[in-house]
Amino acid sequence: MTGLRRKLSSPSALFIFEAAARYENFTSAANELNITQPAVSRALATLESHIGSKLFLRGKPGVRLTENGKLLRNAVISAFSEIERALNEIEERRTGKTQVTLSVSTAFTTHWLMPRITRFQSTFPNVDLRFQLIPGPVTGELGDVDIAMRYGAPGKTPGRFVMQEAYVPVCAPGYYDDTAREDATLILLESDIPGDPQWTPLDSGQPYRNKLTFSDYSVVVQAALVGQGVALGWLNIVAHWMGQGRLVPASSTVMLPGRECRLQLRQEEGRSPVVSEVADWLLQELHADLSAISASHPELDLDSIIKPGNAA
User: Fold this and answer.
1) Which of 286, 52, 278, 59 has the alpha carbon at shortest distance from 164?
2) pLDDT number for residue 199
3) How confident is the model at residue 77, as a pLDDT?
């Protein structure tokens, strides 16, 4: 391993490279590693200079891996996966528990999974969950995790079908008891505003007078929960709160962007049998929420969204 150490610019170089290669975005890599974006850029430039080869093409619209970068990425992913599997097995032998890693959005974890984590632990007492949290769009490859929730085009996204991507305007119960519809506040996610900025999901067809815009969808949902306005509720995220009656539809409009939500599982080779059981549990819990919402709010006509191939 002395030769490998000589070939690297620093002990942390491969960790920084792996994150940057996975995202093909230095800022996202910096956020994951809890360092600054300039620090990522400097570390990668030093690594490239040390090995005498460009690993990234820099420019608009962003960075891309070179052929040598792809070669190193594949080798690093394979090596890191083997190391992580060995460490997980050591820990499982020590604790008697199986580790299952989920790659899901921060908002899904906060607003859907955390409220039922006690039930999960009761069902799977010998499983420890680990999370790869995604703050932005839930896309990309499975990576080195056991279960990943991903969105994609129908017929082009692998994995177990969960539901059609769908969202409905939601607000806290009684919000309109204190707020006239023309004075309502629309709570938005700044990076994912659907359609015309004046588009309104209210049946009245009137644009909202006030808007709150956040960069974090977890905060969008939280703002609606505490009665600050009407949010565009992605159903797989707000399903728990709707099932509990903490959020209610602000109108009967259900939007279908045309993508599917699916659970992707690690390939069977080297996969613990409990991974499939955890995936089954996630599906059953989410579908139970959707069934409860459908029973409480039949006007939404949600039955079709849990069937593949019905996206508009």
Assistant:
1) 286
2) 45
3) 85
Q: Which helix (H) or strand (E) holds 47?
A: helix 37-51
Is 148 strand, coil or helix? strand
- Average pLDDT of the residues in 191-211: 54
Please, which residues have CB within 8 angstroms of residue 279's CB and are 6 or more apart in sequence?
A: 147, 160, 263, 265
Residue 176 pLDDT: 80
Q: Greater confidence, 140 or 164?
A: 164
If you search the block for the tokens 């690690």, which residue do you land on? 266
Handedness of CA 36, 40, 42, 43 (dihedral sign): positive
- State in Å, rounded, how far the first CA of the chain is from the last one: 55
Q: What's domain 167-249's architecture? A: 3-Layer(aba) Sandwich (3.40)
Q: Helix %, strand %, coil % for the chain, to 5? A: 45, 20, 35
Class for domain 98-161+258-299, per CATH?
alpha beta
Query: Is there a contact between 7 and 51 (Cβ–Cβ < 8 Å)?
Result: yes
**Tens digit of pLDDT for each residue in 88-137?**
778 777 777 888 989 898 999 999 999 999 999 999 999 999 888 776 66
Task: State how far the Cα of 78 lies from the Cα of 143, in Å rounded to an integer.
Answer: 10
On the question of a common fold for 98-161+258-299 and 167-249, the answer reads: yes
Domain boundaries, the chain: 2-78, 98-161+258-299, 167-249
| DSSP one-letter string for 232-295 | EEEHHHHHHHHHTTSSEESSS--B--S-EEEEEE--STT--HHHHHHHHHHHHHHHHHHHHHHH
**Range list of H helices, 96-167:** 106-108, 117-123
